[in-house]
C-alpha cells in the first residue's frame, strides 16, 4: 500500500524552508510513501528548486492561499482562514486522499481545526496529544502533552483508554500498565481531579498501576502515563530543555582544553552514538488522538531533521494501523466505560 | 559566628543510616558549624559508633522519641506525634537554638508542622518550596516545587515576591527577572489562574518577563520562575529522572564494548568532571520560604551525599542571611502589594 501524507508546509516557525527539504529527505528513505505538499505554491516551488538534488517523484503540490500564523487567535484560524494550508491539509485527510496530516503550526488552531474538520471519535470529547518519552529499555507513552489545559477525571480516564489502545496496538501488549502523573505515590496525594481520576482508573478494567511521579517517566515504571495538558506540556518542555543543556554540557566539557579535545577525538565513535541517542529531534511528533483521522503535530521550532521525524511518526502510525485500531478500541471501551463512570460526572 | 543547624535524623527513606554519616561528613568540611542531631538516641548512637572515624566534636544529640513515617497522614504527624524528631528539630529553630532545620521527612507533615511551629511571615499564607535549577551559566530559582498543589493568582504573586527577595539577597541583583511557567509564551495561554497571575505580575513593581515554558528553566531566560506546586514538582522530578537516565546512558555507551571502555578510560578526567556536573544529588535541598524560620527539605530518597548537600544548602542560606533579608523584603512588599492586588481576590 502507498502511504499518503498531507504536509502543512506553511506551519512552524520556519515554514517551507524547513518542511519542504524535510519532506524530500523523508521521501528518499521511504519509497512507499507519497507526500502532498500543501501551501503557497510559489514558496513551495522556490524550496523545491533550491533542493533539487533531493527531488523525488513521489510528491504533489496542493495549493492553499492562506497561512495560519503561530500567534493567530483560534477564532481567526478557524473562521476566517478557510483556505489555510493547515485546513486544506486536514481536508485531504477527511476526504480520504491522505492517511494523515503532519503540521508544525499553531497548536491551538491545529487542535480546533482538526476537531472541526475531522470530528472526534464517539465518546471522545477532547482529543489529546500523545508521544513516546524514551527510557533505557523502551519508551513511555504520555498523554496529554498540551491539547487540554484543564481536564476532568473522566477525561483523564479517556486518555488512559486511548493510551491503552495505542500501546496495545503498537507494542502488542495485552494489558499495558497505566500510571497517573501526580506529586507523590500515595493515593491521598494530588488535587481533587487527580484523586477522582485515580478512583475511576482503579474501578476500570484497565491495568492501573497507581500514581507515578515525574522521574518515573524515564524509569519506564509504566507503559503509559496520563496527565492533563498543562502538567504534560511542562514535563515535555522541561525534558527538552534539560536534554539540550546536558548535550551542550557534554560538548563544553570535551572542548574545554586541548587535552579534552584530544579525548573527544579519541572517544568520537562513542560520543557520536550518544549524541544520536540524546538528540531530542528524534522524538519530535505527537499524535493528536481521538479524532476520526490521524494528525501529527510537530514542534513549531522544528528544524528539517526534527520535522522529518514527525513525518516518520505519521508514516509509522499509518503502517501500524493506529487510527483503525484506536477507533475500534475506543468504540469498545466507550460502551463499557460509559456505564461504569456515570456516577462521577 | 557559629552556624547551628538542627537535623531531623529520623526523616527520609533511610533515617539515621543516611542522615548521621551525612552530618559527620558535613562537619569535617565546615568547621564553623555545629549540628544538633535530633531523633531516637539509640539509633543515632549506633550510627555514630559505626562512623567513628568521622567523629567530630561539633555536634550534640537531642532526644526525640517519635518518628513521622513517610506515609503518616498530616493530622497524625501534627496532632499525635508531639515528640517526633521533625517537630523537635523545628522547635529548636523556634527557640532560637538552631538557625535552621534540615529534614528529609514526609513533605506534607514538614510543611504542616513548620507552619504550626514557626508561623508564616506577615502577609504570607502559604510557604513555598524554592530551589535552584542549574543552567550553563548559573541557575534559575524556581518556586513552588510542591508545597501547594492549587494556587490562587495572588499566591503566585507572593511566590514571585519571595523569589525576588531571595535572588536579590543571594545574587545581589537589584531587579531579577521573573517568569511565569506556562504552556506557551503568549499572554492568552494557560488556565484562568495563570492568566490572572500574569496580570497581577504585570501590574506589580517586579521585573516581570512574561510567560516561560519548561525548556526556559534550563536556558536561564529568567532568574526566577514561579508556578504552582503541582507543575513545579512535575518539572523538578521529571528533570531528576531525565538527568539520571542520561547519566546512565553515558556510562552504558562507554561500557558497551572493549574499545569503548578503553575510550572511557582515556576520557576519564572529562567524564569524571561531567559526572560531577550532572549529579542531581548536588542540587538536593529546597528552602521552605515564607516562614519565621529557615527550613530545608531534602529528598526523601536522598543518600548521604545528597543529604549533605541539603545541609550545605541550609548552611549557605544562613551565611547569606536569607531568613532576615526575606522577612524584611516580604514585610516591605506586603505593605506595597496588599493595596495593589486588592481588586483580585
From TrEMBL, chains A, B:
GO cellular component terms, semicolon-separated: cytoplasm
Gene Ontology MF terms in the entry: phosphate:acyl-[acyl carrier protein] acyltransferase activity
Subcellular location: Cytoplasm
Source organism per UniProt: Candidatus Glomeribacter gigasporarum BEG34
Known pathway: Lipid metabolism; phospholipid metabolism
UniProt-listed Gene3D superfamilies: Isopropylmalate Dehydrogenase
Regions crossing the membrane: none
Subunit structure comment from the entry: Homodimer. Probably interacts with PlsY.
Top-level EC class: transferase
Record's protein name: Phosphate acyltransferase
Entry keyword set: Cytoplasm, Lipid biosynthesis, Lipid metabolism, Phospholipid biosynthesis, Phospholipid metabolism, Transferase
